[in-house]
Amino acid sequence: MLYSKNACSNGPASILAARLYKLTKEEEYLDWARRIYDWQKDVLFDRATGAVYDNINGQTDVISTVALTYNQGTFLGTAVELFDITKDPLYLNDGQKIANYTISKCIDPGNNVLRNEGDGDGGLFKGIFMRYFVQYLQREGISEAFRLKFESFLRNNARIAWTQGTNQQTLLFGPSWTQPPAGSTQLTSQTSAAMLFESIALFEKK
C-alpha cells in the first residue's frame, strides 16, 4: 500500500539488525534494532492484548488492526533477539503477550490450531510464527504456566497437521492444517508445514 508503514517489513528488518549486531558488535546495528522495535511497539503493538497490527497509513495515520501470524512471529522474533543481547525481561514479557494473543486469537475456532490465512504469501505465515515461537520457548525465564500452555499448543498443531492436514500418501499440505489439500498445493503452504515440523523437531531435541 502506498504511503503505509508495515509490520511485515519492519519486523524482519529489526531481526536482521539485531543479528548483525551479534556478529559485528557494532552499536549502530543494535540501535537500529531497538529503534525499529520501539516504533512497532509504540505504533502497531497493542500492549494490552499482544496483537501486532498490520500497518499504519502515513498520510492518514489510520492503523489497519488486522493481526496476522507472520507479523506476530517477526515481532516475537525481535523480542527474542533483543532479550538475548540485553537480558532485559521486558522483551520476554512482550513475547509472552505476543505469543498468547496469537494462540488465542489467530486460530480456527474449536480446534486450537493456527487458522488458514489463505494461499500465496498467506500460506507461509503460520510457519514463520512457529519458527520464532519455538525460539521463544527455548529461552529461560518464561512463566511456567505460560510455558506449559505454549508447549501444548505447539504439540497440538503438529499433531493435527500430521493426522488431519495431509494425505499420508502424498504428504502435501495446504493453507489449512486441519484438512488436506485437494490435489496439488502451493509451495508457500508446503513450506509452512515443513517449518512447523522443523520447529517441533528442534524443540523436542532440547
Describe the structure.
- The chain is mainly alpha-helical and 206 residues long.
- The chain contains 7 helices and 5 strands, in the order βααββααββααα.
- The chain has helices spanning 7-24, 27-43, 69-86, 89-105, 125-137, 144-164, 187-204, and strands at 4-6, 53-57, 63-67, 107-108, 113-114.
- The strands form 2 sheets. It has a 3-stranded antiparallel β-sheet.
- A hairpin with a 5-residue loop joins strand 2 and strand 3.
- Helix 1 (7-24) runs parallel beside helix 3, helix 2 packs across helix 3 and helix 5 packs parallel to helix 7.
- The longest helix is centred in the last third of the chain and has 21 residues, at 144-164.
- The protein is globular.
- It starts with a strand and ends with a helix.
Note the topology.
Layout (H helix, E strand, L loop, with lengths): L3 E3 H18 L2 H17 L9 E5 L5 E5 L1 H18 L2 H17 L1 E2 L4 E2 L10 H13 L6 H21 L22 H18 L2
Antiparallel strand pairs: 1-2, 2-3, 4-5
Helix pairs in contact: 1-2, 1-3, 2-3, 3-4, 3-5, 5-7, 6-7
Keywords, please?
single chain, mainly alpha, two-stranded antiparallel ribbon, 7 helices, 8% strand
Mean pLDDT: 96
How many E-type strands? 5
The run of helices and strands is EHHEEHHEEHHH
The major sheet is characterized as: 3 strands, antiparallel
Q: Into which percent range does the helicity of residues fall? A: 55-70%
Number of helical elements:
7
The structure class reads mainly alpha
Q: What's the arrangement of strands in the largest beta sheet?
A: 1-2-3
Regarding quaternary structure, what we see is single chain
Q: Radius of gyration from the CA trace?
A: 17 Å
Low-confidence stretches: none
The fraction of residues in strands falls at 5-15%
Shape: globular
